[in-house]
Amino acid sequence: MLEAAGFVSKSATTPAQQAALKSLPANKLVKQNVDNKVVYVYADPIVCQCVYSGNQAAYSKYQQMVFQQNLADEQMMTASMEQNYFDFSPWGGYWGY
After folding, report:
1. CB atoms near residue 51 (< 10 Å)
2. pLDDT given for residue 84 in this prediction
3. Cα(12)–Cα(18) distance, rounded to whole angstroms?
4. What is the rounded CA–CA span in Å between residue 28 and residue 52?
5. Can you tell me the distance from the alpha carbon of 70 to that of 66, in angstroms, rounded to the nearest whole number?
6. pTM
7. How far does the chain reach from its first CA to its final CA, in angstroms?
Protein backbone atom coordinates (compact mmCIF):
# COMPACT_ATOMS: atom_id res chain seq x y z
CA MET A 1 0.00 0.00 0.00
CA LEU A 2 2.93 2.33 0.69
CA GLU A 3 4.28 1.95 -2.83
CA ALA A 4 0.81 2.42 -4.31
CA ALA A 5 0.58 5.70 -2.39
CA GLY A 6 3.87 6.94 -3.85
CA PHE A 7 6.44 5.82 -1.30
CA VAL A 8 9.78 4.60 -2.67
CA SER A 9 11.54 1.56 -1.18
CA LYS A 10 15.28 1.24 -0.75
CA SER A 11 16.85 -2.05 0.31
CA ALA A 12 19.40 -2.08 3.11
CA THR A 13 22.31 -3.73 1.31
CA THR A 14 25.35 -2.26 3.06
CA PRO A 15 26.28 -2.60 6.73
CA ALA A 16 25.72 1.16 7.20
CA GLN A 17 22.23 0.92 5.66
CA GLN A 18 21.40 -2.13 7.79
CA ALA A 19 22.49 -0.27 10.93
CA ALA A 20 20.38 2.74 9.93
CA LEU A 21 17.41 0.43 9.31
CA LYS A 22 17.78 -1.07 12.78
CA SER A 23 17.91 2.41 14.33
CA LEU A 24 14.39 3.23 13.11
CA PRO A 25 11.23 2.01 14.83
CA ALA A 26 10.11 -1.13 13.00
CA ASN A 27 6.85 -1.06 11.02
CA LYS A 28 5.91 2.50 11.96
CA LEU A 29 5.65 5.64 9.89
CA VAL A 30 8.01 8.26 11.26
CA LYS A 31 8.00 11.93 10.29
CA GLN A 32 11.45 13.42 9.78
CA ASN A 33 12.85 16.73 8.56
CA VAL A 34 15.51 16.36 5.87
CA ASP A 35 16.98 19.50 4.32
CA ASN A 36 14.00 21.54 5.56
CA LYS A 37 11.56 19.12 3.93
CA VAL A 38 9.16 16.75 5.65
CA VAL A 39 9.83 13.11 4.81
CA TYR A 40 7.90 10.11 6.07
CA VAL A 41 9.92 6.95 6.64
CA TYR A 42 8.75 3.36 7.26
CA ALA A 43 11.32 0.74 8.25
CA ASP A 44 10.55 -2.89 7.36
CA PRO A 45 13.37 -4.98 8.86
CA ILE A 46 11.58 -8.33 8.47
CA VAL A 47 9.77 -8.65 5.14
CA CYS A 48 11.91 -6.65 2.71
CA GLN A 49 14.76 -5.38 4.89
CA CYS A 50 14.16 -1.97 3.39
CA VAL A 51 13.07 1.56 4.15
CA TYR A 52 10.13 3.25 2.44
CA SER A 53 10.23 7.02 2.15
CA GLY A 54 7.66 9.47 0.90
CA ASN A 55 6.70 13.12 0.90
CA GLN A 56 3.57 14.80 2.26
CA ALA A 57 1.55 13.95 -0.85
CA ALA A 58 2.44 10.25 -0.58
CA TYR A 59 1.61 10.28 3.13
CA SER A 60 -1.77 11.93 2.51
CA LYS A 61 -2.60 9.41 -0.21
CA TYR A 62 -1.53 6.56 2.11
CA GLN A 63 -3.79 7.88 4.90
CA GLN A 64 -6.73 8.01 2.47
CA MET A 65 -6.01 4.46 1.28
CA VAL A 66 -5.89 3.19 4.87
CA PHE A 67 -9.20 4.94 5.61
CA GLN A 68 -10.80 3.38 2.53
CA GLN A 69 -9.47 -0.07 3.50
CA ASN A 70 -10.80 0.28 7.05
CA LEU A 71 -14.18 1.37 5.69
CA ALA A 72 -14.29 -1.61 3.33
CA ASP A 73 -13.34 -3.97 6.18
CA GLU A 74 -16.10 -2.51 8.37
CA GLN A 75 -18.66 -2.86 5.58
CA MET A 76 -17.59 -6.46 5.03
CA MET A 77 -17.97 -7.22 8.74
CA THR A 78 -21.42 -5.60 8.81
CA ALA A 79 -22.54 -7.58 5.77
CA SER A 80 -21.24 -10.77 7.35
CA MET A 81 -23.12 -10.06 10.58
CA GLU A 82 -26.34 -9.35 8.66
CA GLN A 83 -25.87 -12.56 6.69
CA ASN A 84 -25.56 -14.53 9.91
CA TYR A 85 -28.75 -13.02 11.35
CA PHE A 86 -30.59 -15.49 13.53
CA ASP A 87 -34.35 -15.81 13.18
CA PHE A 88 -35.90 -15.59 16.66
CA SER A 89 -39.52 -15.78 15.45
CA PRO A 90 -40.05 -19.49 16.29
CA TRP A 91 -39.33 -18.57 19.92
CA GLY A 92 -41.62 -15.57 20.03
CA GLY A 93 -39.23 -12.85 18.81
CA TYR A 94 -36.12 -11.21 20.16
CA TRP A 95 -35.51 -11.60 23.92
CA GLY A 96 -33.83 -8.24 24.44
CA TYR A 97 -30.28 -9.04 25.54
Report:
1. 21
2. 59
3. 5
4. 10
5. 6
6. 0.71
7. 41
